[in-house]
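Section 3.1 - Work completed
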Amino acid sequence: MNYFKELSISTSFPLCYNLLPHFAAAEQEYGALRKCVDAAMEDGRIGAFFLSDHPARRQNFSSLHLAKDILASGGEPIVSLSLACNDRNGALEKLQEYSQAGVRQFLFVSGDYPLETDKGRENPLSDLDSVQLLMLLTDFRKKNTIAAGCAVSPFKTFESEQVWQFEKLRRKISVGADFVISQLGYDMRKFDELIRFCALHKITAPLVANIFITDMQTAGLIQARRVPGVKIPGPLLRTLYGETSDCLGPQE
């Protein structure tokens, strides 16, 4: 499956499954991720898998290894490279590694500022942003056939933030972004604004919605701003809390 080509077909509605090897719990085995891939491939509705190139918590969890396994199973990996974790040389080296392994779909993001941890806060590299990296890929793309995706958030709080976010999207498209993936969000009106903005400015690159079906625990983390750039509306949170309470039944 070529995910980018599928996106370009108006009658197609391709699905991509998000794998997070770098967030794997200490007791989780790599085989659990492989089982997810195998089950999805057997089902037939999912043929592409999104994974971020982040340092794994354990040595036996490797995004590159997982990408190779996905390719071997007949799937299509889409690798996200964050510039908060890589400078320009590191990003280009990893891009070369993945390309040599057979990966042809990439998402380039500036990345989030690192959160505070028990060991303090890591300094982001931020050598350049995603617009500049897309500009640097011109020579690489002359020798390698890849699809380069970019990200956009239609969920900014203030109009001044949103205007700049959309302007960056226009710049990313102008320097070669092939498809667009939205930030995670739960405001359907904002998705509509993104579609209208692209239509107004004649942006024809395929749009991919980032969808996450949350549970109450994760919704609480989102509400507490523990997931960078993601917010959940109060009414939706109350509905989720009510449904969770109904499932649990009366508590003594």
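Second construct:
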Amino acid sequence: MVAPLPPPKLYSPTPTPGPLPPPSSSAPVSATTSTSGSPAASTPSLPSTSSAPASSSAQIRTSTPTRSAAPYRPGFQPKGVYRPRTDEFAEYRTKRVDEGRIEQTKLERRLEKLIALHFPVENSVEKGVGARKDEASVNGRGMEKRRASSFFNLDLKNMDASELWKGVLQSQMIQGSNGDTRAAEQRITPWQDDAAVSKCPLCVASFHPLTNRKHHCRLCGTIICSLPPKLPQRQSPCSVLFVVDAKTRRIEEVGEGVDYGVRRAGAGEEEKFLRGVRICRSCRPVLTRQQYWQEMASVPPFVRFYDAFISLEKEIEDAIPQFQDLLLTLSNDDQPTKEASAARKRLLDAFAQYDVLAKRIRDIPCNTGSSQNHVQLAVLSRANLFLQKHMFPLQSLPKPKKRDSSSSPVPFETPLVDPDSDLAHTLQPLLEQEALLESFVGEAMAHRKFEDAKTLKANLAEIRAEIDRMLSDAVR
């Protein structure tokens, strides 16, 4: 640790060697001291000796550089020489953005033309000329546009000589149509020359006529491979295939039909592979962007069910207070009105439909443990809590009193139960089951399922008997 420097001395009794002050500087001092007239004042030994060192020390202090305020804050470096290049950066960025936008627009237009070429609308296919219809009826199921590389489609074991010759002729016709399709694709997108590339530009894998064939991207024309992912060379495939549904016009990516020389099982996947259009990994964002806009335009089933679920829940919450007001007006009457019975039936039907919607949302297929699965289970839990909270006020309507004789005992009436009591919590699941069984009985009768309705009525009678028993025990 470095010791701190001592403070500078302002006065020293012995004069330090250095330049002497000029004589004129000491003359005014002696003249001033001699004007007093006293002998003590006439001997300016002490003042003169003290003034000389003071002047010399002042000369020393003025010769040392004084410390001035720093032009920047302590702990921060001063601002150096700089040149603003914001305008250059903005100009370069605008240029790159414009180039990217132009390239993206070009690829999107090519994609639209390719979809119109390979996957035309059904109406345009049906309105084709007679020659095309005859060509389409050659293969029995229609002449789909397939790639020339689909030679795996021949089943040589189960074909005789005539069928084999017929298949060769049909394959020649297919290759002729594929030649026309290839020429149309090259008019849309200029293809790269095959001799100019010996390795895949994305994964640097060498091409081979059998193990690694050359493929052209239909959007940019670059030659690429179709090898599966392999770490660390290929984290994802260099090319993908896509098809477009003729009815819904939805874009779907399909896998390779041949993996390591082995055909995949499944006629649907093989048909999609044979009709797929290949694009490279660099052009895939254009395809995924189109898929995103298609998904945004279409509403998934979960959203439709959830909207109906929320709207029905709001209707039930608005209808329950009206039904409770009807119960209060009917508490002292003898005969329940038709309006109260109809309101109760509407609420029961709404609760049954609410439960059905919640179960439909739960049954939507999704991956187990995914966020979608958690949301569906949360919706079902919310529906169960809603039913437990709002189905208890749906008690049975008061029955008319019997007035045959004054001595006859007063029939038992359904007492009003405190919702916070233990009896209310015990009766709550039974009342829910009663309401659901009533709705199920109504549905079974509407669909003329009398055997199911009979079983449901028996279960409903047992539940009602249990409810009456618990209420009678509570009154006692």
